[in-house]
Amino acid sequence: MEAIPWRERIRQEDELLEQLAAQTEAALRRRAVALKDGTAELGSVYAVAHDVGLSWTAVARAIKKYTSE
């Protein structure tokens, strides 16, 4: 069995990194939508932050960055 050439291994890993970055971006967007839904349900960013154990600024930034309000 021949080893995969290093150039091909680099190309494969670059492809994997691109896929992971795309999946991470999609997850961040879905998470922000969920945070936004939580804000609608609980009435404030502060309430959502308290409920999930995050700072209110982290919740507000995620919503602002990954959703179109």
List keywords for this structure.
69 residues; mainly alpha; 3 helices; rod-shaped
Description:
- With 69 residues, the protein is mainly alpha-helical.
- The model has no long low-confidence stretch (mean pLDDT 96).
- It has helices at residues 6-42, 45-52, 56-66.
- The N and C termini lie far apart (55 Å).
- The chain has a domain at 39-69.
Name the poorly predicted regions: none
Number of strands: 0
Individual helix count: 3
Mean pLDDT comes to 96
User: What structural class should be given to the helix and strand makeup?
Assistant: mainly alpha
The biggest beta sheet, please? none
Rg over C-alpha atoms, rounded to the nearest angstrom: 19 Å
Strand content: under 5%
> Topology as H/E string?
HHH
Shape label = rod-shaped
Distance between the termini: 55 Å
DSSP helix fraction: over 70%
Produce a short descriptive summary:
By secondary structure, the chain is mainly alpha-helical. It has a domain at 39-69.
Write the layout of secondary structure elements.
Elements: H1 6-42, H2 45-52, H3 56-66
Helix pairs in contact: 1-2, 1-3, 2-3
